[in-house]
Amino acid sequence: MLLGVSGGIAAYKSADLVRRLREAGAEVRVVMTEAAQRFITATTLQALSGHPVRVSMWDEAAEAAMGHIELARWASQVLVAPASADVLARLAHGHADDLLATLCLATAAPIAVAPAMNRLMWANAATQANLALLRQRGVAVLGPEAGEQACGEVGEGRMREPAALVADLAALLVPKRLAGHRVLVSAGPTYEDIDPVRFLGNRSSGRMGFAVAEAAAAAGAEVTLVAGPVKLPTPPGVRRIDVRSAAELHAAVLAALPGQAVYVGAAAVADYRPVEVAERKLKKSDGPATLVLERTVDVLAEVARHPARPRCVMGFAAETHDVEAYARGKLEAKRLDAIAANRVGVEGSGFDAEDNALVLYWHGGEQAFGPGSKRSIAAGLVAWIADRLGPA
Ligand code: CTP
What we know:
Elements: E1 2-5, H1 13-23, E2 29-32, H2 42-49, H3 60-65, H4 68-74, E3 78-83, H5 85-92, H6 99-106, E4 111-115, H7 119-123, H8 125-136, E5 140-141, E6 145-148, E7 154-158, H9 162-172, E8 182-187, E9 192-195, E10 198-200, H10 207-218, E11 222-227, E12 239-242, H11 246-256, E13 262-265, E14 272-274, E15 293-295, H12 299-304, E16 312-319, H13 323-333, E17 338-343, E18 355-362, E19 365-373, H14 374-389
Parallel strand pairs: 1-2, 1-3, 3-4, 4-5, 8-11, 8-13, 11-12, 13-16, 16-17
Antiparallel strand pairs: 6-7, 9-10, 14-15, 17-18, 18-19
The chain binds cytidine-5'-triphosphate.
């Protein structure tokens, strides 16, 4: 792993990044720009990486040890973090005016950049055009994130945290086991309107389904994500269709179904909706009120018996008790290939939590995933799906 550090205040995070990359098993060699040296010393990065840090093309001793072309060849992955606006511009235009830019031009390894800059520099049309060019050429752009900036402003332009960058890289390096397959995922809650200001919803955050969509895309699948009302960014490379109600989710899933190899029903679809949606806001009265509900279509069950049934249909079950019995019951009743069951009502797992733990049941087997991040569990589920499908 060749880590390029360019000049920006976020360069101080590069020290932590080197440490975490090594913890994740990578051998890291660092190249700094001249400007980066004003923010962090080569000595720090050398101590953490365990290799001499290179800055200049004209360092004869370093060139004799490992020439720049050799270094470009050695790299199996290049990450530029932080990537300043200037470095992005130089990479986009193929400059070779310092060691880092030259290496990026000379390497055959995939390149990822983690931009970090003032929000106005980030928003500038020149920066955005440079990024578009880089993306077009297959450079992975990781971040930036929004928040408070070192310059005191608030906005987009903060470098992604080192831990998140390491996870991003791990996803980029995932073997493309789902290449050539199409995967349809539903995620999030549904909202069933009662009147113009009220609805019936649930606590699903959508994170598990979004993580599955992200992991499937990272594994090379062409992913369509039907998302209920959630506040989550669209995972890279995923086609997203936003819906609100169970009926909208049903229609969107059926429209996208032909040609899908996989359906993962991670959405917490409402089982009931109000029979009538009041056109005007309902007014209270003194006595108790009654809301009459009707069943919605079970999208998952319908997908599993549809003529265009995907080869692999995976459902989710959230249960508070008798998890296996209920989950296996749903596996049979809905004719699924697998069902991922999680226990809800326990701290730190299930709805609205960062982490999760679940058990996947299928005919003749079961496998536990987690406890761990929803991202790592999603990677496990995707690996299981890839095993089941085989190559496209
Ligand atoms: N599901 C669906 N359409 C619905 C309801 C649920 O596609 N109208 C899917 C979910 O996406 C999930 C699975 O079915 O994959 C959940 O199963 P379900 O039996 O509906 O779970 P619960 O709603 O918890 O039902 P129960 O009250 O039977 O436990």
